[in-house]
Amino acid sequence: MIVARLLVLGTSFTLACVAPASSAGRATQASAHAAHVAPHTAHTSKTNLVDVAVATSLGRFVVRLETVKAPVTTANFLRYVDAKTYDDTEFYRTVAKKNEPAAPFEVIQGGLNPKAGNTNVPIKLEPTSKTHLTNTDGALAMARTNDPNSATTEFFVDLGDARYLDAGGPLGTGYAVFGRVISGMDVVRKIHEAPSQGEALQPTVKILTMRRT
User: Fold this and answer.
1) Alpha carbon distance 117, 98 (integer Å)
2) CB-based burial of residue 213 (10 Å sphere; 0-12 exposed, 13-18 middle, 19+ buried)?
3) Which letter does DSSP use for residue 132 in this model?
4) Largest CB tally within 10 Å, which of 46, 144, 168, 213?
């Protein structure tokens, strides 16, 4: 496993999202991003939320973004969605008990786009301690390197309780949650359980398109 991007978790896992060692290309660009998402509260206005459909080779799921609670992270993600940067990318990493028995969290990670090169501009971390969004089941968060303010395109989805990744925990500033899966969680679990060698999904799961709904 290449400790390249996403969270830096202390032991052998370096983030809830780290670049797998299966690709030299990813290893080169692996240096990335992670974050946390919080559950949608009953009193949140629908006008403050944006839904994005993620179509993959294993099915479709929809995420709801928190534009008010995490405006910087959400705007960054939507910029790439609208530019179709995520089209034809992939989910390439899975952290699961089957491959990391001692891992304190489980996630799937994707969004790496080698074609984007160095045009991606890192964003300032919006910690969960300020957004009040948490890394719980279905949360959507940004991956990053050891630098809290280094997230660009890569993201991950939490499976189960991953509050280990929240600000104030073992990882310090934690990872920025900015949304959550509102439908198609069965597809997320299917990706999570797909064949892998270590944390590297083999084959990877294609992200066909991402579109606002």
Assistant:
1) 33
2) exposed
3) -
4) 144
Residue 200 tokens read as: 């590297």
Residue 186, pLDDT above cutoff 60: yes
Q: Give CA–CA dist 155/181, Å, rounded.
A: 13
Read off the DSSP letter of residue 46: G
Q: Where is 211: in which H helix or E strand? A: strand 200-212
- Tokens 């995420």 correspond to what residue? 63
pLDDT at 31: 34
pLDDT for the residue 139: 98
**CA distance linking residue 154 with residue 108, whole number of Å:** 11
Range with top average pLDDT, 12-26, 100-114, 194-208: 194-208
The span from the CA of 22 to the CA of 109, in Å, is 14
Tokens of 126: 């919006």
> By the 8 A CB rule, do 181 and 62 touch?
yes
Domains in the chain: boundaries:
24-212
CATH number of 24-212: 2.40.100.10
Cis peptide, bond prior to residue 122, ω within 30 of zero:
no
